[in-house]
Structures are given as structure tokens and as C-alpha cells.
From TrEMBL:
It holds the Pfam family DAAF9_N. Residues 8-214 form the DAAF9 N-terminal domain. InterPro entries: DAAF9_N (IPR056498), DNAAF9 (IPR040342), PB_DAAF9 (IPR058844). This is Uncharacterized protein C20orf194 homolog,Uncharacterized protein C20orf194. Residues 218-351 form the DAAF9 pita-bread-like domain.
Length: 354
């Protein structure tokens, strides 16, 4: 049995492991994306093009928009897709073209069954998909994909592409897009009569416009925020408090801000791997003792302009023990932040008798 003839998955709603998923929420996300086509920030683009997998050289910006519209399809169902027995190139063989009042979806008869519960309720949706028997001919399947792509973008003067992710913004390069396999195939004489894609269509980067909608709260984003991001954030915060208690018991006079903040900073930095641009413009986690909690110090540490690592015994007024500690945590991939002020109880040093 070949990889193209394995058992197809059920397209039932029960396979979507998100409690708050519904046609209403899904349609709302699509309308938010379509609304950007009426926004000047997209340069009056006629359509938004998303190409998945190898055909876009695994562009992360388009993958991010796919996961938004398809509720984490390529992330949350990764294990299930891997167990299906189908090759990755078959599963992520998807192209979506979003226009103001309609949506075109190219897929194959295998991933169609995965996609159906996510998109079947979209208004004015048109599928470009072969039958099972037609798809057995690999050469014919490849030609069908190219012809479908050409038909999808016909009459689109200006096409927007979500080139960069919200966590890592890159400068837009049309020549990079021109090297995407499906875009290269567009230039072949037998499909369009020759001519580069970026010459026949004006291609613009609409990343910044699309990124704004990712912060919109809907029932599903709230569910994932509470069940995934909040629980992870809470664990790191508890680790920070446990570290503080242990340091206070073992070496209370030498405890430093960096040591207390280690859990929050490690969590933040790990979540921002590969997203240096986002790190530069976001607030950062910090812990400050006593006199370091002044507004000027707090602002410089929050933005990453400076770092502070003062032993607790040197952060009091006139050499006295500080009375408080300010902690600030930041979720690396979400809107969660938390700031708390903790007040110390009296210190006891058995060696000095105080």
C-alpha cells in the first residue's frame, strides 16, 4: 500500500481537540483576516496568499497565519499527522487564497479530510482538489496543483503575503518569494505563457497588518491562554518563589536579584529563541530589591537597557535590610504579564545573635 492510498482520517468535529472551537469562532477569524483587505496597511491588496510546506520553502509567516485560521492545525495535531503514515509533503500540501468575499483552497484528497471540519463553514469557499483515483498519478497531481494555483490568482492585481512571523520580522524580498517552488512553476511557458509571478502580480508584504489580529481575543484564544500559557507561566512563578525561600534559608545575606529571577528569565529567553526582534521591543522579566525598585531603575530594567544584580544586604536604606522585593514576569508567546510586590519578614542570623 503506497503512502497515497493509506486509510483516510475521519473529518469529524471530534478530532479537533479544542473545546471552544465552533463555526462561529472560525468564521470570525476568517472575517478578521478578510477585513485587512479593506485596510490601507495592506496597500489595497486584492487577496492574501498562504502557501504551506515545501512550496513556500516552509515560510514561517504563512505557517503562522495557517495556524491562526486552522486553530493550530500544524502544531496541535502534529503527532496525529505523523502517525497517519502519510509523508509530510502530502499533509502540508495546501494553498489558501483569501479574497474580500471568497476563499480558494487547494488541497489533495488526503489532507482534504483533515481540513474539512476547519473550513467547511467558511462562506463562498471553493476547493481545488482531485479525486482519489486522479491523485494516484503523481505527475498529473503536480500539474493540477500548478493549474489550480494559476486559476486562483488570476485577476488578482496585487497580492499580499504574510512574509514574517509576529515574533521575528524580516525585510521583505520579492526575489526570495520568486524562488518558492510553486511560484517558480508559475513562470513556465506551458502554464501562463511565461513571465515571472512578481512581474505579472504586484506582491506586497502584509505581515504587520496580519500580526495585529493575532492579539484579538476570541473563545479559543482565551482557552489556549488559560490551559497552556497561564499554567506554564504559573509554574515558573512558583519556581521563583521556591528559589527565594531556599536562598533565604541557606544564605539570606548574599541572595541576589539575578538568582531569584533565574526561572522567569530562563522561561522567557527559551520562549523567545529565534525571535530576537520581538525581544527588543517587549518588556522583560526582572526582580528588584529595596532601593532598586525606584521608577527610573525599574523602567531601564524592564526595557532591557540595563541589568541589576545587587546582593540583598546592599539594597536597603542606609545599609539597613530592604523591606520589599518587586517581581515582574512576562509570558514569551502571549499577552500575560504579572507584577507583584513582596514584603520581607524580619531576618534572623543565628551566628550574630540578631
Amino acid at each position: 500500500m503506497t503512502s497515497r492510498t493509506r486509510k483516510r482520517p475521519s473529518s469529524a468535529r471530534r478530532n479537533i481537540q479544542i473545546e471552544t472551537f465552533s463555526p462561529f469562532v472560525s468564521g470570525g477569524r476568517l472575517r478578521l483576516v478578510q477585513s485587512q483587505l479593506h485596510n490601507r496597511s495592506t496597500d489595497d491588496a486584492d487577496a492574501i496568499l498562504c502557501i504551506s510546506g515545501i512550496d513556500s520553502r516552509y515560510n514561517e509567516g504563512t505557517t503562522e497565519l495557517f495556524n491562526y485560521l486552522l486553530f493550530g492545525f500544524f502544531e496541535l495535531r502534529k503527532k496525529e499527522l505523523e502517525k497517519s503514515g502519510f509523508e509530510e509533503e502530502i499533509i502540508d500540501d495546501i494553498i489558501i487564497l483569501i479574497k474580500r468575499n471568497e476563499v480558494h483552497v487547494y488541497c489533495n484528497p488526503i489532507n482534504y479530510h483533515y481540513l474539512l471540519p476547519y473550513v467547511s463553514h467558511w462562506r463562498n469557499i471553493r476547493f481545488h482538489c482531485m479525486t482519489d483515483s486522479e491523485y494516484e498519478d503523481e505527475e498529473a497531481a503536480e500539474e493540477f496543483k500548478i493549474h489550480s494555483f494559476v486559476a486562483m490568482v488570476t485577476n488578482c492585481r496585487k497580492i499580499g503575503i504574510p512574509y514574517s512571523t509576529s515574533g521575528s520580522v524580516h525585510s521583505f524580498d520579492k526575489m526570495v518569494v520568486e524562488k518558492w517552488p510553486i511560484i517558480q512553476a508559475y513562470a513556465l511557458d506551458e502554464y501562463t505563457g511565461g513571465g515571472f509571478f512578481t512581474m505579472k502580480h504586484e506582491v506586497v508584504d502584509i505581515s504587520s497588518a496580519v500580526h495585529k489580529i493575532f492579539n484579538e481575543v476570541d473563545p479559543t484564544s482565551l482557552e489556549l491562554l488559560i490551559t497552556e500559557q497561564l499554567s506554564m507561566f504559573e509554574r515558573q512563578w512558583k519556581t521563583m518563589l521556591i528559589t527565594t525561600d531556599m536562598e533565604m534559608l541557606n544564605n539570606s545575606r548574599q541572595i541576589q536579584e539575578e538568582k531569584v529571577c533565574e526561572a522567569l528569565k530562563s522561561y522567557y529567553k527559551h520562549g523567545k529563541v529565534g525571535s530576537e526582534t520581538a525581544v527588543d521591543r517587549q518588556t522583560r522579566p526582572f526582580v528588584l530589591f529595596g532601593t532598586n525598585t525606584k521608577k527610573t531603575v525599574m523602567e531601564s530594567v524592564r526595557t532591557g537597557e540595563t541589568t541589576v544584580n545587587t546582593p540583598i544586604m546592599k539594597a536597603g536604606v542606609d545599609g539597613d535590610i530592604p523591606k520589599l522585593m518587586v517581581c515582574h514576569g512576562v509570558c514569551p508567546n502571549g499577552p500575560i504579564t504579572c507584577g507583584r510586590t513582596y514584603f520581607y519578614t524580619g531576618f534572623s542570623d543565628p551566628l550574630s545573635g540578631n
